[in-house]
Amino acid sequence: MKVLVYGSLNIDLIFSVDHIVRPGETISSSALEKGAGGKGANQAAALAKAGMTVYMAGKIGSDGEFLLDLLQSYGVNTDHVARYEGATGQALIQLDKDHQNSIVLFAGGNGVIQPEEIDSVLGCFGEGDIIVLQNEITQISEIMKQAKKRGLKICLNPSPFDEKIEARPLDLVDIFFVNEIEGAALAALEVPSVPLAPFALSLYLSEIFDRLIDRFPNAEIILTKGKDGAFYAGGKKRARGEIIDTPVVDTTGAGDTFTGYFIAARSKDFSIEESLDIACKAASIAVSRKGAMQSIPFKEEVF
Is position 91 within any domain? Predict the structure, then answer.
């Protein structure tokens, strides 16, 4: 079994700030770092670090070659990453004193993927393989349709969530990875404006899952909710994974780490409950370190 991540590759520009900038405000940054990112690249790195055979597909400019070098150092096959005469995707990240982030994306190569490139990539994969997708590249709908025709299992992380999501052939998805905001939006529910007590939280999440399973009866839903852990729904089955309490340094890439490790754990025949706990542990380790791709732990630290 092979895992293909068809997704974004970004150059991250990380500004350390006192607080996330407000409209009309100009603030100073105490530090600036350049790093490797993109949800696709992060998830490919997580899968590789978790011990999977992983292939990355996407598009970069000449300024993004270092991204491929880093991915290859983790064991990711980058033969399916196309080049073009433009800029690699960019992410402007504000990281505040409380270790929360705000991200502005520029598509770059992620926004100019061509149909003929999809044919070339997916021709190397087939029945029983897994494809992992996000919402940071173009041609997602076409990729999903072709992947399903070839018998690939589709995992979708619909982030960043926007109006384009509902135009995707979501009925083809086998596993959704969502956070609370994305899950609520897919379920046509409002996100509570204040933190919920445990019992109310349980009812709220149950409503999200009931609506999503009713809408996507053949799919599994995994919802991450920060310090509250991660939740699973598939058919009538429900499960929860707990995070490990660690000092939070940087939350960038935590969800991508979770996604990669959950898929890896399930592929290694761990139970759903075990896979949730493994993925939560990996994400907990990642948030205790700076950076995105570099913060993702290796399998020896997690399994």
Answer: no
